[in-house]
Design goal:
With 335 residues, the chain is of the alpha/beta class. It has a single domain, classed as Alpha-Beta Barrel (TIM Barrel), CATH 3.20.20. Helices cover 45% and strands 14% of the residues. It contains twelve helices and nine strands. An eight-stranded parallel barrel has the order 1-2-3-4-5-6-7-9, surrounded by eight helices. Helix 3 links the parallel strand 3 and strand 4. Helix 1 packs across helix 2, helix 3 packs across helix 5 and helix 6 runs parallel beside helix 7. The relative contact order is 0.15.
């Protein structure tokens, strides 16, 4: 029996812009993906926040969440996440209070403390160097929650009475501790910080204090998964994501390349070492391979929920990957 039967499955999407396409196509693909995974029975669909990245159309989560929620009926739609240092907490409360009022019981507010971009762009977003450090995050988070709870001396309309579930997102131990102390659900970015996954989750559970929200810890792990009918095809379509990450690391982000572009790229030995290390924490393969690797991840982490992000060039491959994952969760799999 597949271990995937034991946990809810969710999706993180970045609305990737691929070579030769544009943001309009990317956002249309995101809407189609949300409708597809809703039919497949996924629990939630979160949108990322990234800025100054030509290959990612998801720069305004609140706007995109409203669009996706309008196009679906049962799927929980949320932010993965809102990077709080980029926004006045009052604005976030008003935006997500509005979303929760429009779509009752279907909106999640995932909060991150990183800017999700470079410092120059972060300053352009806030128009100030203030409130960009980790030390300011607890104060900003407290202010945000007070707007929803109606304990601020400013009336955040329609946030009061329309508070979505608040999650803390993290790729290190910092947000894990904050989430634990506040008794909030915690989502860990295993897809780009795999070496910190187990220490952060242990810290979250150790620091957890029961709250009005949760009586025990609830941890979701986000993994990068590329699933295809054959391992050979899965590796082929996973190539663009690896090259895109290499380009980002080298300060040259761009559209998500095609598999052929990725195959033809003149990699140096250092590039290949970086990609090999990067791919070691990704889950790539045919159904049996992916099922085995995800079972190990779930056993190692004790995750209560699994969120999956799939960055591939072709929309049909992306839809198929999520379809195969639900087939794994629905049927016994022999090893």
């Amino acid at each position: 029996m597949s271990r995937l039967r034991d946990v809810p499955l969710s999706v993180l999407d970045l609305a990737p812009i691929t070579t030769g396409t544009n943001a309009t196509t990317a956002l249309r693909n995101t809407r189609e993906l949300a409708q597809h995974v809703e039919r497949l029975g996924y629990t939630r669909f979160w949108l990322a926040e990234h800025h100054n990245m030509p290959g990612i159309a998801s720069s305004s989560p609140a706007v995109l969440i409203g669009h996706v929620a309008d196009a679906t009926t049962t799927l929980r739609v949320g932010s993965g996440g809102v990077m709080l240092p980029n926004h006045p907490p009052l604005v976030v409360a008003e935006q997500f209070g509005t979303l929760a009022a429009l779509h009752p019981g279907r909106i999640d507010l995932g909060i991150g403390r990183a800017p999700g971009t470079d410092q120059k762009t972060a300053r352009a977003l806030r128009r100030t160097a203030d409130a960009l450090s980790a030390e300011d995050f607890p104060q900003q988070l407290t202010e945000l929650i007070e707007y929803f709870d109606g304990t601020s001396d400013i009336a955040a309309v329609p946030a009061v009475g329309n508070k979505p579930p608040v999650w803390l997102l993290g790729s290190s131990g910092y947000s894990a501790q904050v989430a634990g102390v506040l008794g909030l659900p915690f989502a860990f970015a295993h897809h780009f910080s795999a070496q910190n996954t187990l220490p952060a989750l242990e810290l979250y559970r150790r620091r957890f204090k029961p709250s009005a929200v949760l009586d025990k810890p609830y941890a979701m792990v986000c993994a990068s998964v590329v699933l295809a009918d054959t391992t050979e095809h899965a590796r082929w379509i996973a190539g663009p994501g690896a090259l895109a990450f290499l380009r980002l690391r080298n300060g040259r982000p761009g559209p998500l390349p095609s598999p052929q572009e990725a195959a033809d790229h003149p990699y140096s030995d250092l590039d290949r070492m970086f990609i090999e290390e990067r791919m070691s924490s990704q889950v790539v393969g045919d159904p049996a391979t992916v099922d085995e690797q995800l079972a190990k991840l779930l056993d190692d982490t004790g995750a209560d929920e699994l969120m999956v992000t799939t960055m591939v060039y072709d929309q049909a491959d992306r839809l198929r990957s999520y379809e195969l994952l639900t087939e794994l969760a629905a049927a016994p799999v022999s090893h």
